[in-house]
Amino acid sequence: MTEHPTNITANKKTRELSIVWDDAHTSVYPFDLLRAACPCASCRGGHENMKPEPDPNVFVLKMAESSSTRLANVVKTGSYALTLVWEDGHDYGIYNWHYLRALCPCEEDRKKFGNAGEQKND
User: Fold this and answer.
1) How many whole angstroms separate alpha carbon 22 and alpha carbon 71?
2) What is the DSSP code (8-state) at residue 91?
3) CA separation for the pair 30, 83 (Å, rounded)
4) 110 touches 116 (CB < 8 A)
5) Containing H/E element for 9?
6) What are the chain's domains?
7) Which long-range contacts (CB under 8 A, 24 or more apart) does 74-78 make?
8) What are the tens digits of pLDDT across the range 29-56?
9) CA distance 40 to 61
């Protein structure tokens, strides 16, 4: 993946993070999606569940508004990722550019960068 963000904006009123990528695509992520897809080992259920793409089930999981889904801060992590800090203090997930692009809610990016066809039905 060669795409990199050119602009990142967090809007606390609409509860969305927007990323404009260098290929001119704009990804808009609801905060609850970002929290449901937290890539840290604790949220993923251990290191054995770590994968470069988000679990497809995060696209259908809805989380209620709470301190765990209210974004407190966005911190750039090196030149490859963001660390999202949530109001409940959780800040362990490092969302790299590939992971964020695969997490884009649009069908085009989910097919191109993620694993949209692998949704579980359990």
Assistant:
1) 24
2) -
3) 16
4) yes
5) strand 5-11
6) 5-118 (3.30.2020.30)
7) 74/8, 74/10, 74/17
8) 999 999 999 999 999 888 888 889 999 9
9) 17
Cβ-count burial of 89 within 10 angstroms (0-12 exposed, 13-18 middle, 19+ buried)? exposed
- Give the C-alpha separation, 96 to 101, whole Å: 9
DSSP 13: T
b/e per residue, 65-81, with b = 16+ CB within 10 A? eeebbebeeeeeeeeeb
Strand pairing of 94-96 and 5-11? unpaired
Best CA proximity match to 8, nearest among 75, 59, 54 = 75
The answer to whether 26 and 18 are in contact (CB under 8 A) is: yes
Contact (CB, 8 A) for 63 and 9: no
> What does the pLDDT look like over 48-103, one tens digit per residue?
888 899 999 999 988 999 999 999 999 999 999 999 999 999 999 999 999 999 99
Nearest C-alpha neighbor of 1 from the set 118, 83, 103: 103
Query: What is the amino acid identity at position 81?
Result: A
